From TrEMBL:
One GO process term, biological-process aspect: carbohydrate metabolic process
Gene3D superfamilies assigned to the protein according to its UniProt record, in alphabetical order: 1.50.10.10
SUPFAM superfamilies in alphabetical order: Six-hairpin glycosidases (SSF48208)
Origin species: Parapedobacter luteus
Domain of life: Bacteria
Protein name in the entry: Glycosyl hydrolase 36 catalytic domain-containing protein
Length: 432
């Protein structure tokens, strides 16, 4: 179904009729008749029905991925299966409260030279965990995933399940306490992690780049802190008795995110606040790099006004046009120069350094819908839907010439696009 130029059509309808409601009806009609939406929705269901690992390029179940397709997975799989995956993360939880990135059957956990240092606990007999320590989103992702599961299933009793003598509710809090104890910078009042490209998990100083090392440049960014804010909102909704404890921390981090990370002149979040220097060349103006993914998550966290959301979309569209990419899933723009990362996959417009990811583009689509920019969201989602059909699946990321790369059957992408399609349908159902 051809929708290029829909915004122009909607604008003409609005001017001719003198009311936005007719434009809404025209948009709702398009959504209801759009077979592409239904095709991709069906594809997403089949992809998530087929398993829980991140994609066919990964053996592990990752919490940052599971968090983004757990709502759909709850529709398709027994509650006992969804809960068991969550329990594995809790069984592998560190004594300090930290959460692993993912888990894999012990029989497949073979450490190679330079590979993962697997995590084992006495509570988990079947799986080994791994943790990319450059990240600061695993704990927040688990809280969000539990919230989404309970919201979808209505099974609040899961919070009282006991694992190793602690309830799920207590373990959720312990995960948040880990971040405050081990990843909270007192000077800025924000969480820190390693320097990565936007939401990525690859630091510049190492050929692989997933572990903190002696050469790590520590930094504060918007993605980690926005994920934390969403998790705290979810936590106090699940556990109202914790509101007095966590709400002041949530408000403090939100205020500091705006105070320290928002560049008023450029109207964007700065990439990093460095705590021990920058790993990048002084000749590169990193302050001008626009982070698409972190901005989308910041919108979800409630950090941007309606006008700022509109401006963010304009910047993303302009970046897509300037780069030649296909969608606003573009990780960032401009990319870091060649040689900025020792990992060879992090070349300009490669992987997380300017690759085009539905996994985050779909989240921006959701936020546009939730903020009332439904027509704009409908226009911007089209290239994401079309390439899923053209390539018969959900790929991890795409090059700027729209060629698929990385893992196929990437369930995180399937999950966020499915959720976006549901939001489109819900909008259309309210328009009469």
């Amino acid at each position: 179904m051809k929708v290029v130029g829909f915004l122009m059509v909607a604008a003409v309808v609005t001017m001719a009729c003198g009311t936005s409601s007719r434009a809404d009806r025209a948009l709702a009609s398009l959504i209801k008749q759009d077979t592409l939406l239904q095709t991709v929705k069906s594809m997403a269901r089949e992809t998530v029905r087929s398993g829980f690992n991140a994609g066919d390029g990964y053996q592990e179940v990752w919490i940052r991925d599971y968090n983004t397709f757990i709502t759909l997975a709850t529709e398709l799989h027994p509650s006992t299966t969804i809960e068991e995956n969550l329990r594995v993360f809790f069984r592998l939880q560190g004594e300090d409260g930290n959460i692993v990135d993912g888990f894999i059957p012990k029989t497949r956990a073979r450490r190679s030279e330079g590979g993962y240092a697997y995590v084992y606990t006495v509570l988990e007999p079947n799986y080994a965990g791994h943790k990319n320590t450059v990240e600061t989103d695993q704990e927040s992702s688990l809280v969000q995933a539990v919230y989404k599961y309970i919201r979808k299933s209505g099974n609040h009793t899961f919070l009282q399940d006991t694992i190793g003598g602690q309830t799920v509710a207590r373990r959720l809090e312990h995960a948040m306490e880990f971040l405050m104890a081990q990843r909270f910078n007192q000077e800025y009042g924000l969480l820190w992690g390693a320097t990565t490209a936007d939401w990525g998990d690859v630091q510049p100083e190492h050929p692989w780049g997933v572990y903190l090392t002696d050469s790590t440049h520590y930094a504060i960014d918007i993605y980690d802190n926005a994920m934390f804010l969403i998790a705290l909102d979810n936590l106090v909704e699940l556990l109202p008795d914790t509101r007095e404890k966590w709400t002041p921390i949530r408000d403090h981090v939100a205020a500091n995110s705006t105070r320290h990370l928002w560049d008023t002149d450029r109207q964007q979040f700065i990439p990093h606040i460095y705590l021990n220097g920058s790993p990048f060349s002084r000749d590169f103006d990193e302050a001008g790099v626009y982070y698409h993914g972190g901005t989308a998550v910041a919108i979800e966290a409630g950090l941007l006004s309606q006008e700022q959301v509109k401006h963010a979309l304009g910047r993303m569209v302009a970046n897509v046009q300037a780069s030649g990419a296909a969608s606003i899933g573009l990780t960032l723009y401009p990319p870091y120069p060649a040689g900025s990362f020792k990992n060879p996959g992090m070349h300009p417009y490669g992987y997380q350094n300017g690759g085009d990811w539905d996994w985050f583009g779909g989240r921006m689509i959701q936020q546009l819908i939730r903020h009332g920019f439904v027509a704009e969201a409908y226009e911007q989602v089209q290239p994401m839907l079309r390439r899923a059909v053209d390539h018969n699946g959900f790929y991890e990321w795409y090059t700027i010439d729209n060629q698929p790369h990385g893992s196929g059957t990437f369930r995180g992408a399937a999950g966020v696009l499915y959720d976006a399609i549901v939001l489109f349908e819900e909008f259309a159902a309210t328009i009469h």
